[in-house]
Write a structure and sequence with these properties.
7 helices, 2 domains, 35% helix, single chain, alpha+beta
């Protein structure tokens, strides 16, 4: 069980903080008073901010010397080799509309490597946990990526349209998205868009689909998901096939078996 490994203490703190935030989010979901745009197409709710604050409080109390990066507030830098990455509600559009596909993601990085984290999907009552070298788990049971070997039997999920801060950025990204999805649709069984990076990363790790492609990302989107996928036996790279970093521009998570074929299908131009 993952709690017995050397990163178990960190994981326990993350689990408790995510469960608290998930409870806050669920209690607020159906009576949201303040849903505002933080960009022309992106929204933030009062629940995002409340969950962010609760997680910050928990992590700071447990590890006051650690760095802390969350989606909704300014980063806290202490010069530590340890950095927490937090997405208090990933899939805010889904959450604000009552879709069940959203989650809380809390992960810890040491140096350049993610070492521990959890993704809590409150509406599905699914807790994904992972530690470096300790394996990936769903509700305490070990998980692994799918064994699908043929592209025509594979499912991929793709990032949302309308990502970007300006109309020009969104137009360029939408065109890339359209081309990439068109190529994937011709080669795979299904192309989906679930609207939450932490859900999609978790689902690849659990073997529910074979790949997830994200053309633009932030570190908190993929910090835990990338470790989940690799600890579940899959692969994570950038779309040029390069070594994965949560600081990079894009991502492909897969079951590993189909990774090279997926990269070729998704290449644009």
């Amino acid at each position: 069980m993952e709690m017995k490994d050397k990163y178990g203490e960190f994981l326990g703190v993350a689990i408790r903080a995510s469960e608290e935030a998930g409870g806050i989010a669920r209690s607020m979901q159906h009576a949201l008073r303040d849903i505002r745009f933080k960009g022309e197409k992106d929204v933030v709710t009062e629940a995002d901010l409340a969950c962010d604050a609760a997680i910050r409080k928990s992590l700071t109390a447990a590890y006051p010397g650690h760095n802390l990066i969350t989606e909704e507030e300014e980063a806290v830098e202490h010069g530590s080799e340890y950095t927490w990455y937090v997405d208090p509600i990933d899939g805010t559009v889904n959450y604000s509309r009552g879709f069940p596909l959203w989650g809380v993601s809390i992960g810890l990085r040491k140096g350049e490597s993610m070492i521990a984290g959890c993704i809590w999907l409150p509406a599905l009552e699914e807790m994904f946990t992972v530690t470096l070298g300790g394996g990936a788990y769903l509700n305490g049971k070990h998980i692994q990526v799918s064994g699908v070997t043929e592209m025509h039997a594979a499912i991929i999920s793709h990032g949302d349209f309308n990502i970007g801060n300006t109309e020009e950025q969104r137009k360029e990204m939408n065109e890339r998205n359209l081309q990439s999805r068109g190529r994937a649709a011709a080669a795979l069984q299904r192309v989906k868009c679930l609207g939450s990076a932490v859900v999609e990363g978790s689902f690849v790790a659990a073997g529910r689909m074979e790949a997830y492609c994200m053309l633009a990302m932030k570190p908190w989107d993929v910090a835990v998901g990338s470790l989940l996928v690799t600890e579940a036996g899959g692969m994570a790279t950038h779309l040029d096939g390069g070594k994965f970093s949560i600081d990079g521009p894009d991502a492909l998570f897969s079951n590993g078996i189909l990774h090279e074929q997926m990269l070729k299908v998704l290449q644009l131009g």
